[in-house]
Amino acid sequence: MRYIEPHAHMVSRVTDDYERMALAGCEVVCEPAFWAGFDRSSAAGFYDYFCQLTEHEPKRAARFGLKHFSWLCINPKEAEDVKLAAEVIALIPEFLDRPNVLGIGEIGLNKNSRNELKVLEMHVELAAQHNQLVLVHTPHLEDKLKGTRLILEVLKSDKRIHPERVIIDHVEEHTVGLVLDAGFWAGMTLYPETKCSPARAVDILETHGQKQIWLNSACDWGVSDPLAVPKTALEMKKRGHQAAAIDKVIYQNPQRFLGQCPKFKNR
Amino acid sequence: MIYGLPRLEKSSIVNKNDMTQQQVLDLYFLDARHKLIEVAAFLDRVERAGGKEDFRLIAFRAALDTLSSGRNEKVKQVLLAFSDPTTTPIAKAAGKSATGAWAGKKG
Q1: At the fourth CATH level, which superfamily is domain A3-258?
Q2: Residue A4 near residue A250 (C-beta atoms within 8 A)
Q3: A8, A67, A79, A93: which has the fewest Cβ within 10 Å?
């Protein structure tokens, strides 16, 4: 079995996780910019983080034969401070030409505030100006439905944004239809306690199709599982799905979306 | 027993109707039974503790009600029962974390 992990926060994981993922069949890992678990005190902290994502982490992954790609932004969890966000966003263009940068992400909303919405619009403007792919984070738990609706409004109102070049992540049963019906890609995040379980993710594939959906672990410093994607592949196998169908979901689909960025090479 | 399940075969196009109800029960009944008992134990625990029910427990009971409503898409109905249904951005984020239920439903 081969698979692509399209969303993992590897800076928060130990090196052993890279080895376990490689042993499970992972060939490529993609890392969106994330909140560190505490607020960074200045734009300089983000500059260092972007260097970590584009210089150091690819080397750590390469030790296990894994290709490493990244997405850049200031995460919605730090978007309440619009001035800081503007300073960080101004840093991003100098990183966009680096060989492992796929686009802008994970942008979006967290608590659905006005300032978060402003920062989302600033990121969308950046992506449109530089013709970048976009990876969108949707809020957690009770805030997800409202946040998904607000995000879709922003994206659909900008005619420079092409839905097939945007993936809206962390969908669940009450939001996946909104995303797919609008023509966007949908990401399902597999978490032990929140978001989707492997069984529910396969339910969603069975009821909504598998044309524009990927699976990811979004493993980070919290409760999460870097092997969640292969475990969901096993869930599909238990239900009788053939190897070709599993490969489409866990390898070909992320390859098809990410391949829209010319820098994405997984062979 | 899942060990005794016959191997299922499906086409490369996923179809929700390919598994029989018997096969679904064989694969998932024990797991679902376990989770239902955990829910019952949680309710016993929180009720033994006493005190005033907050918005999370109120939303939890509303979500449970959707399970016996006979409506389709039960998981979607449960998620909606916990969700903020409003459409206007809030003025300012007071914190970063979510509680799992919309506080606006309290009372």
Answers
A1: Metal-dependent hydrolases (3.20.20.140)
A2: yes
A3: A93
